[in-house]
């Protein structure tokens, strides 16, 4: 049994030596400053024990670090490399003398960062072993990066990822070896070679010298090739040289192909060359097909060929169907051919039905066929009912059939009642039969007697004024005669019984005529 263990240990060391001979960077974490979350003992198993070049995995040989074991849900260990360094791979030796080691180490995470706050760095590795036996207590992890701090972190949340995990977060690290070189250098153990100046930031793999990233416009293992001039900003993938994106009118892995001339603005997808849009009247992946002839403005969907809209009189996906001739202006809905409006006298989805004959101007509702208005003498939804003959001009309400107005002398909803005899001109209110005017009152409520008295009084006042005027005129005329110079002259009238001898009626001479001129 002891021989088997010795052979196994020897095999492990051979593998480690072989790996280290291939991955030939130097251990840049050796004897660097290390710290951990909480110490298990104040003077024993501290963080520095994991970078002292002792790879013995027996905890009691004082070659390992150990964090606090009970009641902790988080545990971490960290080494400061002293400055930014190029890392290649990291080897971890975990405690090997405990049956609980794998339960405690399971689920660990490995971070590389530029500051001590590893949460702001990069997660290089996370253990996701499904069983306890899958957990390796001696593991080498590839971590090509540029960093100053390396952190190993473990967490025991609630719930745990697996039931077989330890209840508390514990780290028992016997050695952590970070293999790499100073920034800008690589080489066999000595790191004595310089990375290519074409490497972005001067950083390269510490083993091979291969650039992590390239300077703009370059690609290749050591960025020795130029990106295609057809790449936008001449940017391409480091390993393949494939363009990140292409200039207008170009496509292909290196943007070496031309987009179709039928592509709108000559734009197409980088990988397939399919047009991002088509010029007017074209469709298809590379816009090589024509849109249907009945598409309005020759516009159709690039992939299905369905018309965006149809010319007048057509409907359907490809506008191949004909609208009903009863559609107003021959226009119908593209999807189902239903008329948007009907010609006069028609209704229904495709205007195939006739409006009721008594609809005014032959107009009815588009869907139900109800008349919007009725001809004189009709009412109802389809104007099929007859208005009462007592309605004035034979006109009634379209919905109720009630008369809109009555002939003189009638009132009521159908004008069937007679106005009261006391109404002036036989006129009364249509709704309640109240007189509009009568002998005593106007419709406004003014007292008719008062108005009559006012009119008679006015007449007598005018008559009295006329009498006074005549009297004044007569008195003035009389006074004028009294003041005249001929007031004593009398005119004689012939005697009623006087008969002249001559047989002819004589004329009595005026008194003035009887006086001779001589006096």
Integer-rounded radius of gyration: 62 Å
- The coarse silhouette is elongated
| Sheet with most strands | 7 strands, antiparallel
The H/E string reads HEEEHEEEEEEEEEEEEEEEEEEEEH
Percentage of residues in helical conformation: 10-25%
- CATH architecture verdict of the domain at 25-183: Sandwich
Question: Can you tell me the CATH topology of the domain at 25-183?
Answer: Jelly Rolls
Mean pLDDT: 85
Class per helix and strand makeup? alpha+beta
Number of strands: 23
Identify the CATH homologous superfamily of the domain at 25-183. Galactose-binding domain-like
CATH class of the domain at 25-183: Mainly Beta
Instruction: Classify the beta-strand content into a percent band.
Output: 15-25%
Unreliable segments of 5+ consecutive residues:
1-24, 440-445, 486-519
The N- and C-terminal alpha carbons lie at a distance of: 209 Å
In DSSP terms (H or I, runs of 4 or more residues), the helix count works out at: 3
Molecular structure report:
The protein is an alpha+beta fold and 519 residues long. Among the domains are: 25-183, Jelly Rolls (Sandwich); 355-400, no CATH class; 406-450, no CATH class. It has 3 helices and 23 strands. The strands form 9 sheets. Strands 1, 2, 3, 4, 5, 6 and 7 form a 7-stranded antiparallel sheet that branches. The N and C termini lie far apart (209 Å).
